[in-house]
Amino acid sequence: MDPDKLRALLERVQRGDATIDDAVRDLADLPYKDLGFARVDHHRHLRTGFPEVVLGLGKSAEQIGSILAELARTGANVLATRVADADVAAVLNLCPSARHEPAARALVVEQAPIAELGRGTILVVAAGTSDLPVAEEAALMARLGGNRVERLFDVGVAGIHRLLHNRAALEAASVLVVVAGMEGALPSVVAGMVSKPVIAVPTSVGYGASFGGIAALLGMLNSCAAGVTVVNIDNGFGAGYAASLINRKDGTHP
Known about the structure:
By secondary structure, this protein is of the alpha/beta class. It folds into two domains: 49-109; 121-247, Rossmann fold. Helix content is 38%, strand content 17%. It contains eleven helices and eleven strands. The protein has a five-stranded parallel sheet. A four-stranded mixed sheet has the order 3-4-6-5, covered by helices on one side. The longest helix has 13 residues, at 3-15. The protein starts with a helix and ends in a 7-residue tail after the last helix.
């Protein structure tokens, strides 16, 4: 139940086009729906501005599909992240309205228009091709959150001329999500070039001493450039969500 649908329902009751019993029936599952293995949060869209997002990691295909189908039943746009390729077909059988976004390792049910809520462009910057799944997850979340999204990929510090060649794109963005593995230096470089918020995303890409992304995480947390905020390792979704909140127009409903 999103804010617009709730408002429309209450207006129908006020006009006499719907009864109180009609409203009670429509709102019966508003707090949450108990599926036995999961309590699906139908109230989250009202609280936060975006429906509950399903983390596919650690869930069976049947669990992912059942939760997606329940969330989609209300007519909302729904996102499931970290869905294994081996589970996609089974999930789509349970939730045929979903589509696979392989680059982002995600499934999306997109059945409602996406209102433009952003005041500018969110630019997702990735250091290397190995970082793209996390970067695409961030870009997908930002787009579903009502933002114009652009991408700038494979511009890591090992070939910094590639980044400098795209300085105009960096400066034109309202918020930047910068994704990097290895030593995680790219967000510091970008933040030193622009006057916009930079959300740094460390990835688990790297060799032995990268410790699965911990080296990049620590490097970003210790950035000497001002304006860098860091999310957890591989958390493209969280970065895209945070960027959406930062980029929101003044006065727009979440």
